[in-house]
Structure formats: structure tokens, C-alpha cells
Amino acid sequence: MPATPSVKTAQTFGPNAVDWENRIDLARLRAERLARVKAELDRSELGGLLSFDFANIRYMTSTHIGTWAMDKLIRFALLPRGGEPIVWDFGSAARHHQLYNPWLDHTGGPATPDGAARTGARAGISTLRGAFHPAAGIAEDVASKIVAVLREHGLAGEPLGVDVAEMPVLVALAAAGITAVDGQQVFMEARRVKTRDEIALLTQACSMVDAAYSELYEFLRPGIRENECVGMVSKVLYDLGSEYVEGVNAISGERCSPHPHVYSDRLIRPGDPAFFDILHSYLGYRTCYYRTFAVGSASRAQRDAYVRCREYIDEAIALVKPGATTADIVSRWPAAEQFGFADETAAFGLQYGHGVGLSIWEKPVFSRLVSLDHPEPLEEGMVFALETYWPASDGWSAARIEEEVVVTGDGCEVITKFPAEELLVAGSRYWTAGGSLNTLRDSQSHRNTPAGRGGEKRAEEDAVPPDPR
Question: Is residue 7 part of a domain?
Fold first, then answer.
């Protein structure tokens, strides 16, 4: 018999459903996600899980009503131990779930107290971040719904795991005799290792950002504003089928160091560094994906910062395999004091790693702030982003690189494919009387001559700085 051809862990498909190729199986995705939450709940001491977090609600119920509602804390879902999930939603959305989400159909049971058919999708709303009048009794109504289901399952006396909730809801649950405890860890453990379909969705999301970076590379030039880059990238992603562009972190020029984590209307100038983080969602699955460019040309300081940044991320990726720990990874990264910060809290997020899934920051977390003392083992099927940062010696520019990886049986596979091995120069190619303008040059033009750069120090400055480790 001929050998079965090998298949990559992270496959990329077209977004359409077809009959002639085995692609993402959404029914399997729904079933396997719920099974993992149930298994983690069974391993816990909780009687049930109550969720107000959109990602957790989607993970266990496979329902979604649009990104506009993500910050409202108005929908909620309950998974009782030994039972099936129930989601309470806007009445119209609940009706839609009943019509189009057959995996939530529990019609075999008794009627609800109001006489409606038993279903996993029901009308019900929470306190809308305090917008409802406290005297309206909304929080008490939420608590009564939860208590009723727990009593049906004989779980009213068991602790209830809650991910995030408003204080009035917690008070109402306590008044109803429910002991609310942290349930977020149960969800995070369930979501830590990805299913095969989750990996495919995360890979597809990255492939869309690959395309956005290709367009951005062609778009970047002096005179373009950071916010224009954000608009262009967002259009590319939405045209490709993105569900939600969560953010495009566009930073250029002297805004690179310190790193403000938010785009502005700054005009990009010749010789500027510009780095971007593209965060979007494809069928709920996120990306977190940095790239750095130089516009027109790069100074030696910018080039050297990029080389250092790349070295740190490559060393980290080389260590990724099942059985390695988050401590193994962060031990290869510089301490905060080595790149200008007082401590690891001040430098948090710059040399960093985090799980990626229905949220952009999931388990495991890689940071010298916590990982050296509390290491977490890496497992096959994890998907996470590793990101590094290095400020340039010029005092104002910097480099930022991020790669997403899937942990395989014997290592890992990088799923962020836009080129980042060396610093790319975007924008026009300039021609002089003597030929093309060198793209490794300082934007302070007098520093590009031996006299302007100190003559005898030129060779020393051209060298990559030594590793401080």
C-alpha cells in the first residue's frame, strides 16, 4: 500500500463550503468545544458555569449576535453539571437561535415556568453595565433564572463558577443563596489546547493578515498617516471575510519608543520605522500579528534593533515543543532593565507571549513577570503568539515582531507567513546620479558620510551590537 501523504498541522482552506474537499467541520467544532468545557467542569468542584463573557458564551453555546454587544454584559449562559448549556439573549436573538441553532434544542424536557417550550435559547437580559434602573429588579431576575435551572438539576447548594459579572448580579446571586466563585479558570483550561478545526480557523485568520500586510507594504510611503493605514488594512480584512477588525496598532517614527499601543493621525516621514499589530476575527478566532517596516530607508540603529528583536523571537520559537515550559521561553528574553525599564511590570507586554483563540489573550502567558516563578508546560495543539521588542540606540525608534505558532508533536509550526526575517523597506525606491539610493542610511543626511559619522568609528557603528546576555 502506498504511504499516506503527510498533512500539515495548520492547513489553509478557502472560505466556502465544498463537497469535493474535507475542510473545517463546524458541527465537529461545536461538539468538541462543548465537550471540553463539560470535561473541565466535571474535573472541578463546581455545580455549574455562568458566563457573561462573549468568548466563553460562544465557546460553549456556539451563538453570536454581533460584535456590537461584546462590551454590554447583557447576554448570559449557564452550563449545569451533567446538563446542557442554556443561553439567555435578546428576545429576537433567542427566537433566531431557536430557529437556526438546532444544537441548542432541548425540547424533550418539561416546560419552563412561563409555559414556553424547553429550549437552550431563552429570552432574558442582564443589567447592561448599570444602564437599567437598579429598582427594576433585572439583577434579581437573572439570579432567579439561574437558581431555577440549578434547582432542576439538584445543584442549588453547589458553588457556581462565574467568569465576569456586574456587582448587582453577584449580590443578587448571594441573596438567592448561591455561592459564586471564580469560573474563568475552568473556561481557560478548556480553551488552552485547540481542536483541529480551531487550528484551521486560526490559520485562516492569519492568512488574511498575510494579505493585509502585503497591501500595507505597497501602501506605505511618506505622507501617509497612521490612521489611513488602519483604514486600508481594515478594508482588506473585511473584503476577505473578516468578522471583526478588533484593532490595528499603527505606530511610526518617534512614537515607536516609548510604544503607546494606539494609532494616531501622525504623518509618516522618510526614514521612519513603522510597526503594526493587526488584530481581527475570522468566525470568532483572533489574530495578534506584529510586523515592522522602514519607510524609504532604515538607519543602522533601526537595522540593529530589528536584528536583535529577530534574534530573541527566533531563539524562543526554537525552544517551542511539548514538554517545554513558559519559563524556558522567557529565560531567553532580556530582563526589563536591559532595555530601559525599571522592572517587569513596567516592561510588561513588550517581551511577551499569549494564547490565541476566541480571545487574543488566553493561556498560556509568557512573561518574565510571572512565568519564571509559575511556569506552564507547553502541549501539542496549543496556539500562541510570541512577540519581542527592542528600542534602537538612537533613542526614538524601535522594532517589534510577532509570530503565531502551533505546537506540534515534535516542535512547532509558524502560521504567520508575511516575511519578517529581515527589516523590510517600504515606499518608493529613490535614484541618484550615481545609482539607487542606499536603503541603509540615516534620515539625518549628514550622518551618512565618514566625516558626519566620526570617520574612524564607522566600521564599529556598522556592526550589530553585542548581545548583552
Answer: no
Rounded CA separation 304/120 (Å) = 57
Residue 10 lies in a domain: no
Q: Quick one: residue 56, left, alpha or beta (phi over 0 = left, psi -120 to 50 = alpha)?
A: alpha
Q: Which residues contact 463 (CB under 8 A, 6 or more apart)?
A: none
Look at the chain and report how many structural domains it folds into.
2
Residues 213 and 163 reside in one and the same domain: no
State whether 108 and 243 are in the same domain.
Answer: no
User: How many whole angstroms from its chain centre is CA 328?
Assistant: 22
- The answer to whether the beta carbons of residues 205 and 287 sit under 8 Å apart is yes
Average pLDDT rounded to a whole number, residues 309-327? 98
Consecutive H or E run containing 435 = strand 435-436
pTM of the model: 0.92
Assign 16 a pLDDT band (cuts: 50, 70, 90): confident
Instruction: Give the pLDDT confidence of 347-398 residue by residue, as tens digits.
Output: 999 999 999 999 999 999 999 999 999 999 999 999 999 999 999 999 999 9
**DSSP symbols for 324-360:** -BHHHHHTTSPPGGGGT-SSTTTTTTTSEEEE-SSSS
How many C-beta atoms lie closer than 10 Å to residue 256's C-beta?
Answer: 24
Segments forming the whole domain that contains residue 132: 26-191
Residue 39: inside a domain: yes
Shared domain for 179 and 241, answered yes or no, is no
Distance CA 335, CA 90 (A): 48
CATH number (domain holding residue 48) = 3.40.350.10
Contact 309, 399 (CB under 8 A): yes
Residues 382 and 237 both lie in one domain: yes
Quote the cell numbers at residue 331. 529565560
Last residue of a domain, one of 135, 157, 191: 191
